[in-house]
Write a structure and sequence with these properties.
The complex is a heterodimer of chains A (185) and B (201).
Chain A lengths: L2 H14 L4 E4 L6 H9 L4 E4 L3 H13 L4 E6 H6 L1 H11 L3 E6 L10 H13 L3 E5 L2 H18 L2 E6 L16 H9 L1
Parallel strand pairs in A: 1-2, 1-3, 3-4, 4-6, 5-6
Chain B lengths: L2 H11 L4 E4 L3 H9 L5 E3 L6 H11 L5 E6 H6 L3 H8 L4 E7 L19 H8 L5 E3 L2 H13 L4 E6 L14 H16 L14
Parallel strand pairs in B: 1-2, 1-3, 3-4, 4-6, 5-6
Helix pairs in contact in B: 1-2, 1-7, 3-5
Classes of the chains: A alpha/beta (185), B alpha/beta (201).
């Protein structure tokens, strides 16, 4: 599976879920997905300067009838927390959060960010699902959007390297050369 | 110049424009002058312009007015290059700059020491951003912005004066439902879908 196939599958899931506005901030692991979103004529792509503004943009767009998602890294999820609490949760506004899981098991970078990601989601009462198998992605995205709309809350999907078609983290079996390859990707 | 006088001028022109207002007294004063389900009160400091941008992108044929403050905009300056990049022709971004955090004890904001929000907006790429230096010029700028199909940014230096008005008459969730129902009714679209019970399937 190539990163392009992975990107097209995830974008296909978003489209089938009815998503027609995506706000985003890049991570190298999201580059192909964001490129595919940008090229899609039916999805309005809003590139952000900081993730918190994306929460506001999606809240406003939801209130006038758009179905929205934010695509960002988990560091960006942390950047967004005040908006998530005092806008999304306070007003009961649904929003799909597609969060690249930096510091996932086996990663050699951002382990602190990774370690706080699920606990913070849990503390905010945001239901989250880790995506590791591409053949489940479309179905999970559709169900997550239904859950967000029904619960009127944000729902988080954690995007791992596996599901983005990147070289999967392989823990102790990896060599220094593997890590160097990742750096060059 | 008093903010309340600017808001009066705006209320006379705003028609059915959607109005998003920043946390603080601006919201209460605006709601007293134009009570409407098309008003949305923001509770996250900084997010006023972003929420308004989302509405403007979602409903490109409807005018959306953001009533921002200096403290709020300073917290979310990155909203300006994003607005410039998306360039929604139906968004009017108003900033009342009283140079203090009025709702938080009236400590000085950075605009009291020289930060120029119109200059920052221009540098971010919002062409035509301007200061309105009197209620008359504010009213004129608003009137033009409502007629034109063009992104607008209007700054207004105002006194630190509140006008005594009624408290906001609803909580956040009621505000959301009333706003969404207002959009459904005026745009003739369905936003909040309700599912049939399983037994009807």
């Amino acid at each position: 599976m190539t990163v392009e196939e992975a990107a097209n599958t995830i974008l296909g899931g978003l489209r089938e879920a009815g998503i027609n506005l995506v706000a985003s901030l890049p991570d190298i692991n999201l580059a192909q997905l964001l490129g595919a979103i940008e090229r899609d004529q039916d999805v309005l792509h809003v590139p952000l300067c900081r993730e918190e503004e994306g929460i506001g943009i999606c809240a406003g767009a939801y209130l006038v009838g758009k179905k929205c998602a934010v695509v960002m890294q988990n560091g960006g999820f942390f950047n967004s927390n005040n908006a998530i609490v005092s806008t999304l949760l306070q007003y009961q506004i649904p929003l799909l959060l597609l969060i690249y899981y930096a510091g996932d098991i086996g990663d050699r970078t951002f382990s602190t960010t990774g370690s706080m990601t699920e606990p913070v989601l849990s503390a905010l009462g945001i239901r989250s699902y880790i995506l590791r198998q591409l053949d489940q992605v479309k179905e999970v995205i559709k169900r997550a959007q239904i859950l967000a709309e029904d619960s009127k809350r944000p729902v988080a999907l954690l995007l791992t390297k596996e599901v983005l078609g990147r070289r999967a983290a392989a823990g102790v079996l990896r060599t220094r050369n593997d890590a160097a390859d990742d750096e060059r990707q | 110049m008093k903010r309340f006088d600017c808001l009066k001028a705006l209320a006379a022109e705003a028609g059915d424009a959607l109005v998003v207002s920043s946390a603080g007294a601006t919201t209460l004063e605006w709601n007293a002058l134009r009570p409407s389900d098309g008003n949305f009160r923001v509770r996250t400091l900084g997010l006023c312009s972003s929420i308004a941008l989302g509405m403007a992108l979602g409903l490109p044929r409807r005018k959306v007015i953001a009533l921002d403050g200096d403290g709020s905009l300073l917290m979310n300056l990155c909203s300006l290059p994003t607005i410039a990049r998306m360039n929604p022709k139906n968004l009017i971004h108003v900033v009342f700059d009283n140079q203090v955090y009025e709702a938080s004890g009236s400590g000085e904001t950075a605009t009291a020491r020289g930060a120029d929000l119109v200059g920052i907006a221009l540098a971010a790429g919002i062409k035509g951003a301007c200061w309105a230096n009197s209620v008359e010029s504010f009213a004129q700028a608003i009137s033009q912005a409502l007629k034109r199909q063009e992104l607008a940014f209007i700054g207004a230096k105002v006194d630190v004066t509140r006008t005594l008005v009624a408290p906001y008459p609803m909580d956040e969730v009621e505000n959301k439902y009333r706003f969404v129902r207002h959009i459904e009714a005026t745009e003739k679209i369905e936003i909040l879908k309700t599912s049939l019970p399983a037994s009807y399937g």
